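Hello forum,

I keep getting stuck at the same step: I have a sequence, I want structure tokens, and every attempt I make locally crashes halfway through. Rather than fight my setup again tonight, could one of you with a working pipeline run this one for me? It's a single chain of 377 residues.
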Amino acid sequence: MLLRSMLAENYRSLRSIRMDLGQVNLFVGENGTGKSNLYRSLQLVQAAAKGTLAQEIAAEGGMASVLWTGRRRPNEPVRIRLEAELLDEERAITFRYRIEAGLRPPVAAGFAFEPQVKTEELAVETGRRPVTMMRRAGPSIMVRDESGRMEEHPEQALTSETALALLGDGGHYPEVGTFRRAVAQWRFFHGFRTDRDSPLRQPCLAVTAPMLNEDGGNLAAVIATLAHIREDTTELGRAIADAFEGAKLSVPEPGEFATFGLVFPQFPQRVFQPRELSDGQIRFLALAAALLSYRSPPLVALNEPEASLHPSMLTPLAAMIAHAARSSQVWLVTHSDALAREVERRCGVRAKRVIRNDGATWIDGMRLTGEIGEEEG
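Reply #2:
Ran it on my machine without issues. Output:
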């Protein structure tokens, strides 16, 4: 399921921005231009699918903190609006999801800092006109039944919960469930803890791990899964050797716990444990596990992955991103021109340059339709 386009309105620095997307989406810009807000808006679409939108926005300081604070048109509703269009290429089905959330009315149920979902809609298109599968206005939800008729769902939604999550779990509405499952499998990696107590440095329970958790807490299990379940660490080993001057991975057969280490050419008889590695080394290993895991997520998003990495690691990182892009859609936010150039060269894409336009985040050269002119890439 390819994320074909996205829209975000009135979220932080995103006044109104719509973008067409491809297999590799590379965003470059200076600090303060809003690159991370683009990334974060996509996370909020996933939060709507998972049913955690209210928690995510409350954790940012609540609706009043995340709304666009610039000039608004007269009588314009004070709402965040998010849209995502996914294409199921095998079945030639397009899914379009939209959600709008705003502030709590003065007299209404709910807590002050959580969002109030105003409207929500999921439509599908199979070559003809779009067909609405679910529409929500306030607490009431209309959903298309097996006979094709729109009917009112017997359960009303709380003002802070999403109909997408409420209906997607039951198995009664396959289109809603399909969209929800696809979005829930996206992976977002926004830095990793690298301190002494970081989960990256700890053994973890030896449970087969097809993908890296977003906090990296199952790093050892992901590496052990590649080494002992797939029995293939070729790409991972190549990335490690390129980044660490010929170092090799050591992955003992797991018992109750999985662990790993590195062997460096200067010390061939010694296995360096994760607690002994530098911040940059352990962060690179986490990125390697995110990009080269046993199972590929439909979309993997990296926000400034170059943080704490030695410049010599950027070329191996770009190689891993290009390898991941063979099976996953990639969303990469960076302010490293060196990393961007390597990704451009290896993936055959042109970076989207993020700028500020009248205070709002924008993409240099992008038309209002979301397309980028050929001369700009």
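The CA atoms of residues 280 and 309 lie 5 Å apart. If your local run keeps crashing, start a new thread with the error log.
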